[in-house]
Design brief:
Number of helices: 22
Radius of gyration: 34 Å
Shape: elongated
Distance between the termini: 111 Å
Helix content: 40-55%
Number of strands: 17
Largest sheet: 7 strands, parallel
Length: about 575
């Protein structure tokens, strides 16, 4: 049948929004009705159109009452139902309204991939002119590697961590491949991290996390950038694509375009804006992404092996860990130039509108604790706040893992190999000598890669550095060991005597274990205990204060129940010791 391409308020064209009750689909329907140039057919899986409280007396309810909007129950797995809904339409917007609450991979495949095949075939049979598919920027994300200002030249990954992204990429490829068949023009849009009022996935997930014990944690170093897209901007991009296809621009048909708010933002800052706007605390404890990933993989293995017997369903999965810790920014200059797209709602305004729409889920700010994330922690000051702190607190994961692997290698080489220390040292020197010799004879460039040579000064130690180190050791010995021994020899400080005796006793217990075992335990503790203390600094400090108060009360109890002669002897010695120390200070 011939379809009139002219449009006006008196003679609006017909369009169909498949998935019109989805998150982006609702916003698209609103924009189409506001333009007053369309008669909109809303297709969804529900038996009938049910308007929520905010949609009562809205432009949608008015359009339904006068016939400018109608509803069709459509299961995209049934091509006949799709044909019935789109018959006579000029353009079809395919929103891929997948129900994420259904955890059935086969169902997801049938709806996303097979459903898209049915939509394409139905459009060809019904002589639809244009088909616009709402894809996702995730179709070029392999779930592992960061994307910096990626454009449409990025290929599909050969492997996906997220199965749904794999299905969407297949559906998108089908849409683009169908361009030009039977006069059908197609286009795919890839919005990145869509958010806004009515969101049923991302924002509710953040609120759920904020209400749990995991509220204070975030994955990664907090420096990864991400592109977000307000829902109205994503819907607006579909209208821009339809207008461009209608104008006959051949460079747009059969292409995919990234859609963003054009304002890349730090992931943790965006999350914090949402949470703080809803009176929840911002996450301030960072967890190393690699460490979290190892734990998540281990939990998934436990769940697969013992899941039927114990309740151990992990809250995170590897794809979510990478999503929270990877940089994912996209260049949507092609959408600006070819589609004429530009955001109609800024990121700041979009965040404000989103917070207002979820105000009924806000928290109680009077019970929230905030922490100055820029203030260095106690353990950071203890470790000196330099390279050692960065390594042991997992701030630079590459350096941390390099250092950890090097220490594990040395531990295995010297103590777990069964060789003597001398033979291990000799073998290590031989190995280092061979590596240095091979590195020295290599050319400056090889296979297009530059090889950085090691300067001779790298192996030299300046006299100033050596003097500083020796002076530090001598000062530590004189002020620590020598002063302690002098005080013990005078027999004045019983408190110090008990401290030294207890320390030596515990040292004796530790030395009863084999050195390889102690070194292994110490290595594990060095890379875990500091970061654990940083994450639970307040809780540990409270525990230490409580323990100190109990020790102090126990000491007072013992002092009050000692025999009179022993109490007098200790008090007299303590007083003499204080007099001697004060006289030494005056001298």
């Amino acid at each position: 049948m011939a379809i009139d391409e002219s449009s006006s308020k008196e003679n609006p064209r017909i369009c169909t929004v498949l998935g019109g009750r989805s998150f982006i689909g609702r916003s698209l329907v609103q924009l189409l009705l506001k333009s007053e140039q369309w008669t909109v057919r809303i297709a969804g899986s529900a038996p009938s159109l049910i308007l929520d409280r905010k949609e009562q007396n809205s432009i949608l309810s008015d359009a339904v009452s006068i016939g400018r909007a109608s509803y069709f129950q459509v299961d995209v797995r049934e091509k006949s139902q799709v044909c019935e809904a789109i018959e006579g339409s000029t353009v079809v917007f395919h929103m891929d309204a997948l129900d994420l609450s259904v955890h059935d991979i086969y169902h997801h495949y049938m709806v996303t991939v097979q459903g898209t095949k049915n939509v394409i075939n139905a459009c060809r049979e019904c002589k639809v002119k244009r088909l616009i598919y709402n894809s996702s920027a995730d179709v070029v994300f392999d779930g592992v590697h960061s994307i910096h200002n990626g454009d449409e030249s990025l290929p599909y990954p050969w492997r996906y961590e997220d199965r749904l992204s794999d299905f969407r990429s297949q559906a998108e490829a089908l849409i683009l491949f169908a361009n030009g068949t039977d006069g059908l023009l197609t286009c795919a849009l890839r919005p990145s991290n869509v958010f806004g009022p009515g969101d049923t996935h991302f924002i509710p997930y953040l609120i759920g996390e904020a209400r749990s014990v995991r509220a204070k944690f975030f994955v990664g170093n907090g420096e990864n950038l991400c592109d977000f897209t307000y829902v109205d901007n994503a819907a607006h991009a579909h209208i821009c694509a339809e207008q461009t296809l209608c104008s006959g621009m051949a460079s747009v048909a059969g292409k995919a375009f990234f859609i963003t708010n054009l304002e890349p933002v730090n992931m943790i800052e965006f999350v914090s804006l949402i949470l703080e706007g809803l009176d929840y605390p911002r996450p301030w404890i960072h967890l190393p992404a690699m460490l979290v990933l190892i734990v998540v993989v281990l939990l998934e293995w436990v769940h697969k092996k013992f899941g039927p017997h114990i309740n151990c369903q992990p809250q995170l999965n590897p794809s979510l860990v990478h999503f929270l810790s990877c940089t994912r920014t996209f260049n949507c200059s092609n959408a600006q130039k070819q589609l004429g797209y530009s955001p109609i709602v800024s990121l700041e305004e979009g965040v404000t509108l989103t917070i207002e729409s979820f105000s009924h889920l806000s928290g109680d700010s009077s019970y929230l604790r905030y922490r100055d994330c820029n203030k260095p922690s106690k353990v950071d000051k203890l470790l000196g706040g330099g390279k050692v702190a960065d390594i042991l607190l997992w701030r630079d994961e590459k350096k941390t893992f390099t250092c950890l692997l090097a220490l594990v290698f040395l531990l295995c080489w010297f103590f777990l190999s069964g060789r003597t220390f001398i033979s291990s040292m000799a073998r290590l020197l031989v190995l280092v000598s061979v590596i240095l010799f091979i590195h020295g004879i290599l050319p400056f460039t090889m296979f297009g890669f530059a090889i950085e040579k090691i300067p001779p000064s790298y192996f030299e130690a300046s006299e100033t550095v050596l003097k500083d180190r020796l002076t530090f050791l001598a000062t530590t010995w004189n002020e620590g060991v020598v002063c302690t021994l002098r005080t013990l020899a005078q027999g004045d400080d019983w408190s110090l005597f008990f401290k030294v005796a207890c320390s030596l006793y515990f040292l004796k217990l530790f030395l009863s274990f084999s050195f390889p075992v102690m070194a292994s335990v110490g290595l594990v503790l060095a890379f875990t205990i500091f970061i654990v203390y940083e994450q639970y600094e307040e809780e540990v400090d409270k525990l230490l204060i409580t323990s100190h108060s109990y020790v102090k009360k126990s000491k007072e109890f013992l002092d009050g129940h000692l025999p009179p002669f022993l109490a007098a002897f200790l008090s007299n010695n303590q007083r003499l010791g204080q007099d001697d120390r004060s006289s030494q200070k005056h001298q």
